[in-house]
Design brief:
Shape: globular
Radius of gyration: 23 Å
Helix content: 55-70%
Strand content: 5-15%
Number of strands: 5
Number of helices: 13
Largest sheet: 3 strands, parallel
Order of helices and strands: HHEHHHEEHHHHHHHEEH
């Protein structure tokens, strides 16, 4: 009887912990969407485009919160506008017009009604005036047929406020100094900020310490290590040298000095590697400067090659 009671208590404790962690992750996501929308002030613009049937293309590096921003705008919109249905689906593996219509119709059915008659009428109406939102992380819009919205990096003070607010809501304290170190490490990247903050929350007590910061930093590297190691191991010697030049913040990568120092071969070879790195999402051009799109990849590559 005692053993059964002890087991029941352990299960109950586990369920409470899992529930608390799940709620925390929900808070992280909600606060991050707020930070993104406050920084960019794009929710109002999206909602205006919903009303005017203006197609919209949102551009940013991967994992900057494009989908979350659109869904937040949609959720707010349907609270004010009754009878509006939003359908979300991925166009990545759709290769024909027939596949597009099929996916579109199926998504409408799931989002609106399980009655065939209602669905058919809704599908007819929707296909007449569909409003399209495209999220792209490539930096190059696939189809230029709408308003372009560029999501920029969130300002550090907004991110700091987001982290501290979320920790306080769960009874934990994190100093401004440690918040700044997290933000600097992930270079204002919203996805990795959430991941880093989550790792710290899981291992910290009531007050976050330096040891918690370094433990969480090691954890975020470990979580992404296998994926990035595969990319790094598949690189040629030229590509590794080019990567080293980028890690050393060389600004004039086509200059004779850089080509000679890193043994990059020729300007044409650099152009091929630059295009390859861009296509793989390793680097991106921001404000006229080439930067790493993924700060954790940069962190792992820097420790391996520098």
């Amino acid at each position: 009887m005692l053993s059964s009671l002890a087991l029941f208590c352990k299960v109950l404790h586990y369920e409470c912990v899992v529930t608390k962690v799940a709620l925390l992750f929900k808070q992280f996501k909600e606060c991050m969407v707020t930070a993104i929308s406050t920084n960019c002030n794009e929710i109002a613009k999206l909602q205006s485009n919903f009303i005017s049937s203006q197609n919209t293309i949102i551009i940013s590096p991967r994992r900057y919160g494009k989908s979350s921003l659109v869904k937040e705008a949609a959720e707010r919109f349907i609270k004010k506008e009754k009878g509006i249905v939003f359908c979300f689906f991925d166009l990545m593996y759709i290769y024909s017009e027939e596949e597009l219509y099929s996916k579109f119709a199926t998504t409408i059915l799931k989002a609106s009604s399980n009655k065939v008659e209602e669905f058919l009428q809704l599908a007819k109406n929707a296909l007449k005036g569909a409003r399209v939102i495209i999220n792209t992380g490539t930096g190059e819009p696939a189809l230029e047929f709408g308003e372009l919205i560029y999501l920029n990096r969130i300002k550090p003070d907004r991110l700091r406020e987001y982290v501290q607010q979320t920790f306080r809501s769960t009874g934990k304290e994190i100093s401004e100094e440690i918040c700044n170190r997290i933000i600097d490490t992930v270079e204002n990247h919203p996805y990795y900020l959430q991941q880093f903050a989550r790792n710290i929350w899981l291992i910290s007590g009531k007050r976050v310490t330096d040891a918690d910061f370094f433990g969480a930093k090691q954890a975020i590297k470990s979580e992404n290590l296998n994926f990035y190691n595969k990319i790094l191991e598949d690189m040629t010697n030229y590509q590794v040298s080019f990567l080293k030049a980028l890690l050393n913040n060389e600004e004039h990568i086509y200059s004779t000095g850089v080509i000679h120092t890193y043994k990059l071969g020729s300007s044409a070879n650099i152009r091929r590697m630059y295009n390859s790195f861009t296509k793989k999402g390793i680097i991106v051009k921001e404000a006229g400067k080439t930067i790493f799109s993924d700060p954790i990849f940069k962190l792992i590559a820097g420790e391996r090659f520098l």
